[in-house]
Amino acid sequence: MRGERHIADHRVADQDVADHLVAVLATRDASIVELGAPADVFVHDRYAVRYCAVEPGRVTLVSGFSIEAPHGLDVLAAARTVIVPGGAEPPRTPQLRITHALRAAAARAPVSSRRGPARSSWPRRACSPGAA
After folding, report:
1. What is Dmax (Cα atoms) for the chain?
2. pLDDT band with cut points at 50, 70 and 90 for residue 106
3. Residue 1 domain-assigned?
4. Which of 94, 40, 34, 101 lies closest to 67 in space, CA to CA?
């Protein structure tokens, strides 16, 4: 379609072959650059990159671009690496479903891999266990 700006789900490797599942959470406020970077970085056959959203399907970003996120939040719990792209604007409090899915994924992670982000753009209270 003329004028349409869209990114399709990028399948780096087949999940059955790959030994490292990378989940990328697509939200309306995410930066197109930060959404696209995992597809460029995790190109080795050992990685399978999966885009997910609260509701699977096309996510239209505030920038006007869109990305196809065919997976739901359940892919976060199965992933070895979870990427939550930031955006240009200060973030809003995440939806409760996102908060719960991220907590479940973090609880499943081995203690040695639980590292805080270099910088987090979401309010700390939104994702803390006592919130919501």
Report:
1. 48
2. confident
3. no
4. 34
- If one counts the domains in the chain, the total is 1
Residue type, 15: Q
Confirm if 43 and 12 have CB atoms less than 8 A apart: yes
Stretch among 72-81, 104-113, 122-131 having the lowest mean pLDDT: 122-131
Residue 34 makes CB contacts below 8 A (sequence gap 6+) with: 85, 86, 87
* pTM across the whole model: 0.73
CATH number, domain with residue 13 = 3.40.50.880
The string over 86-100, giving b where at least 16 C-beta atoms fall within 10 Å of a residue's C-beta and e elsewhere, is: bbeeebeebeeebbe
Query: b/e string for 40-69 if b means 16 or more Cβ within 10 A?
Result: eebeeeebbbbbbbbebeebebeeebbbbb
pLDDT band at 108 (very low <50, low <70, confident <90, very high): confident
68: left (phi over 0), alpha (psi -120 to 50) or beta: beta
For residue 55, give its domain range.
6-127
